[in-house]
Amino acid sequence: MLGLEFPSGSWWRAIVFIRDAAVRGEKKLAVGFDLSTEARRNEAEQRLRTYATNAMPKLIAAAKAGIPLTIPAS
Question: In this predicted model, what pLDDT tens digit does every residue of 44-62 receive, in sequence order?
Fold first, then answer.
């Protein structure tokens, strides 16, 4: 994925971090997680893919530095 090496044992924490942040972000959108049509599903998937792609380098750097992943309060 992205050609980045993620430290062993940190995958699930990153997955949960991305999932939780994506859900919080989608709750702020008027049409968040609208999966009623193919076009809406594609839009939602693209938003999630973009967020994960942007978050991964930061999560990898934090994991390699031993910094715990914390989820900011919303």
Answer: 889 889 888 888 888 888 8
How far is it, in rounded angstroms, from Cα 63 to Cα 53?
A: 16
Asked whether residue 7 is assigned to any structural domain, the reply reads no
Contacts of 68 (CB under 8 A, 6+ apart): 62
* Residue 20 in domain: no
pTM: 0.65
Q: Higher-confidence residue: 74 or 20?
A: 20
Contact status, residue 22 vs residue 51, Cβ threshold 8 Å: yes
Structural domain containing residue 53: 33-65
Asked if residue 54 is part of any domain, the answer here is yes
The residues, any chain, with a CB within 8 Å of residue 48's CB and separated by 6 or more, are 22
